[in-house]
Amino acid sequence: MLIVPVENTINWKRPPWVTLGLMLACLLVFVFYQGSDPRLMSTALEQYLDTDLVALEAPVYENYLQRQINLYDQSERVQELQSFQGAMAQEDRLWMAGQMLFDRAFYSYLLENHDMLWAPQDQQVWESWRPRIQNELIERLSANRMGLIPDELRLSALVTHQFLHGGWGHLLGNMLFLFLLGFTVEKAMGPGKYLVAYLLCGVFSGLTYTAFSLGSKMPLVGASGSISGLMGMYVAIYGIRKIRFFYFVWVYFNYFRAPAIALLPVWLGKEIYDYWFAGATGIAYMAHAGGLLAGAGLVLALGKSWFQVKDEFFEPEESEQDRRFTTSYAQAMGSLGRMEFDLARRQFEALRLHYPDRPVLLEHLYQLAKLRPDLPSYREHARLLMNQSISSRQPERMVEIWQEYMSKGAVYAPLDAEDHNRVLFACLRSDDLKSAEKAFERLQESNNDNLAGEACRLLVEEFEKRQMVPKARHYRAMLQTL
Q: What is the CATH number of domain 318-481?
């Protein structure tokens, strides 16, 4: 069963840079840092098989597993013992080698007891090869160097293990959930606090795993504990608000709405249940549980101080936004109709602050600013509206605004050379050569020789294309003087 919150959609105008950065970091670590692991493992297996350590250690490993089950009540290893005995019966040396070679706890057992396990001649063979394979190859694997090993806990490993993964499937699965959850939590908290919270969840996740795996030499790797923390933060941020969840059971899937925080005990209960009853799956269930509790705890305990959610995060639904916009827009238009221009201007400015993607608001502000062409706001809004016209692929509207400003506002505050240059390009694209020549005249007056020279060359080319020889000759002569 899979249950994932899907309340938000991503806004690519404001990408989740920290989430994308974390994903990239995990990918780069896996490809470049962990890229040597297959070679180390292959070499270790080859040397282990060539020296026939399999035949030497296999009976000891079978006895070792039986001791772990009988003396230390490790019932989860019963299936492991049965699989190993089956491999012995089929003489599957490669599978047996992998099982023994990468069991670091078994190697520690051999180090402590090798003088009692074999005859002196066999001891000598073992001592000649096994420590060398272990130290030069096995211990250099990324999981053993940078993973979180409960029996050898290092503070740095509480962070580094979050960026290691056990294979492509492990990596891609984690990155998918990191993206699905991360962009929402990053939007809610802001990039800096989000990064700190993400790493802290991974640390608490690792500590929880360590507490339930004391003495274990099995390294923990992966971002799943940190991602579980994101799940905890996600539902704690929304609290009792009802949000959408996607669920998948076998081949059936659908959506449902529920109070966000109500899913926390469901997820937590599932991880704890699987820890006790799922058997030896290789999944760090208690690391997931620790991450969930850490993420929810950080928001619930510090959500009104350091990890406070940004005010703009809880945006109204799109329909509600449309209703609010329509109401406020009607009020501004009413002020305009009553000729309360200052009030209308303030209302349109407030609307544009909340709805920057509505082009009609800038149009109204421009028309209001045009009433006082002597003020700086007219130039500012004319330039903004010209840029908006280009962005919306309306070059004719841009030229119209430019011409209007030239007649009303240029005497008070001239436009920049770059503005005239953009108008010239727009005119050439729309085959309005007359307006292009006027824009060039204004560009010359701005005393920017570089732009004027480039524009003059363009005019020469355009008139030559149209075989307008006198015009081409005129601008070619002018180009020589620039």
A: 1.25.40
What burial letters (b/e) apply to 318-337, b meaning 16+ CB within 10 Å?
eeeeeeeeeebbeebeebbe
**Measured in whole angstroms, how far is the alpha carbon of residue 254 from the centre of its chain?**
25
Buried b (16+ CB within 10 A) or exposed e, 433-451: bebbbbbbebbbebebeeb
The burial of 465, by beta-carbon neighbours within 10 Å (0-12 exposed, 13-18 middle, 19 or more buried), is given as exposed
Q: What are the φ and ψ backbone dihedral angles of 257, each rounded to 5 degrees?
A: -110, 140
Give the pTM: 0.66
Q: Nearest to residue 24, comparing CAs of 237, 208, 178? A: 178
* H or E stretch covering 404: helix 395-408
What is the C-alpha to C-alpha distance for residues 369 and 377, in angstroms, rounded to an integer?
6
pLDDT in tens, 57-80: 999 999 999 999 998 888 888 989
42-56 burial: b if 16+ Cβ within 10 Å, else e: eebbebbeebebbeb
CA 285, CA 278: separation in Å to the nearest integer? Answer: 10
Question: 358 by DSSP, 3-state: which?
Answer: coil
Residue closest to 49 by CA, chosen among 104, 168, 135, 129? 129
Q: Which tokens sit at 36?
A: 């040597």
Q: Note the pLDDT tens digit of each residue in 204-239.
A: 999 999 999 998 999 999 999 999 999 999 999 999
Residues 479, 482: Cα–Cα separation, whole Å = 5
Task: Give the residue extent of every domain in the chain.
Answer: 2-33+155-313, 51-140, 318-481
What token pair was written down for 175? 């990155």
Tell me the C-alpha distance between 34 and 148, whole Å: 15
In order, the DSSP letters of 21-63 are HHHHHHHHIIIIIGGGHHHHHHHHHHHHHHTTHHHHHHHHHHH
The encoded tokens of residue 131 equal 């420590």
Q: Which fold has domain 2-33+155-313?
A: Rhomboid-like fold (1.20.1540)
Tell me how far the alpha carbon of residue 125 is from its chain's centroid.
Answer: 51
